[in-house]
């Protein structure tokens, strides 16, 4: 599995395109604005078809291009039901963004839940619910690849903001400790913004939540 890190959109939100040339399949994690322009040539070059789109949470900067990606590929979508209102009625967020950014409603094909396990790209994947930044933030954990895609729960040396509707600092702190810091220290953490880090690094040195 190859991991393509693709910052995109107005605030450089990380999308992650996971490709497996042997299978000819790919998964996209999050869909910031203009992501399809970056993802399409990679898929063509690696002869991969995008089969699924996973949303770590429903905030606009992670979903702005989601409907466009689905129209272009027919990809199956996954997200957490606690953020259903963000996915299905994005005008909730549009009110804070002005007229420059247009958001389209998105249908989620499968609502993921805490502890759910499934297979993607020939690998086992575990879903962990990490609320606090927003109610429906989840991470997707590839245990065999020591990789976790955590949305806006945890960053290198920081954590997601909790002052937005549905946010809770206490809930986020507890979720980080129970759902992220319980993974092996060597697990690479791929956040929604900024560089990758590792579970062990954050447990020892994150000034907001220590392990």
Summarize the structure.
The protein is of the alpha/beta class and 211 residues long. It is built from seven helices and 14 strands.
**End-to-end C-alpha gap:** 30 Å
Can you tell me the number of structural domains? 1
According to CATH, the homologous superfamily is Ribonuclease Z/Hydroxyacylglutathione hydrolase-like
Separate helix tally? 7
Main sheet strand line-up: 1-2-3-4-5-6
Q: Strand-residue fraction?
A: 25-35%
- Radius of gyration from the CA trace? 16 Å
* CATH-derived architecture: 4-Layer Sandwich
Structural class: alpha/beta
Structural notes for this entry:
A hairpin with a 4-residue loop joins strand 2 (13-20) and strand 3 (25-29). This protein has a single domain (2-205), classed as Ribonuclease Z/Hydroxyacylglutathione hydrolase-like (Metallo-beta-lactamase, Chain A), CATH 3.60.15.10. The mean pLDDT is 95. It is globular and about 40 Å long. It has 7 helices and 14 strands. With 211 residues, the protein is an alpha/beta fold. The strands form 3 sheets. A 6-stranded mixed beta sheet has the order 1-2-3-4-5-6, covered by helices on one side. A 6-stranded mixed beta sheet has the order 7-8-9-10-13-14. Strands 11-12 form a two-stranded antiparallel ribbon. The longest helix is centred in the last third of the chain and has 12 residues, at 169-180. Helix content is 26%, strand content 31%.
Question: What topology emerges from the helices and strands here?
Answer:
Elements: E1 2-8, E2 13-20, E3 25-29, H1 35-45, E4 49-54, H2 60-63, H3 66-73, E5 76-80, H4 84-88, H5 91-97, E6 110-112, E7 117-120, E8 123-129, E9 138-142, E10 147-151, E11 154-155, E12 158-159, H6 169-180, E13 188-191, E14 197-198, H7 199-205
Parallel strand pairs: 3-4, 4-5, 5-6, 10-13
Antiparallel strand pairs: 1-2, 2-3, 7-8, 8-9, 9-10, 11-12, 13-14
């Amino acid at each position: 599995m190859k991991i393509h890190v693709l910052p995109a959109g107005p605030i450089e939100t990380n999308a992650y395109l996971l490709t497996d040339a042997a299978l000819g399949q790919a998964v996209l994690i999050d869909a910031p604005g203009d992501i399809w322009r970056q993802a399409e040539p990679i898929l063509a070059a690696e002869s991969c078809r995008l089969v699924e789109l996973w949303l770590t949470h429903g905030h606009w900067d992670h979903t702005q291009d989601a409907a466009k990606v689905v129209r272009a590929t027919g990809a199956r979508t996954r997200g957490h039901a606690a953020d259903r209102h963000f996915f299905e009625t994005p005008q909730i967020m549009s009110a804070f963004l002005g007229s420059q950014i247009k958001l389209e409603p998105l249908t989620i094909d499968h609502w993921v839940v805490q502890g759910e396990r499934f297979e993607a790209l020939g690998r086992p994947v575990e879903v962990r619910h990490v609320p606090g930044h927003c109610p429906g933030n989840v991470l997707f954990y590839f245990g065999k690849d020591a990789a976790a895609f955590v949305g806006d729960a945890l960053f290198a040396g920081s954590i997601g903001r909790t002052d937005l509707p549905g946010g809770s600092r206490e809930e986020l702190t507890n979720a980080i400790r129970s759902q992220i810091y319980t993974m092996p220290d060597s697990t690479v953490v791929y956040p929604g913004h900024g560089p990758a880090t590792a579970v062990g690094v954050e447990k020892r040195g994150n000034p907001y939540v220590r392990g």
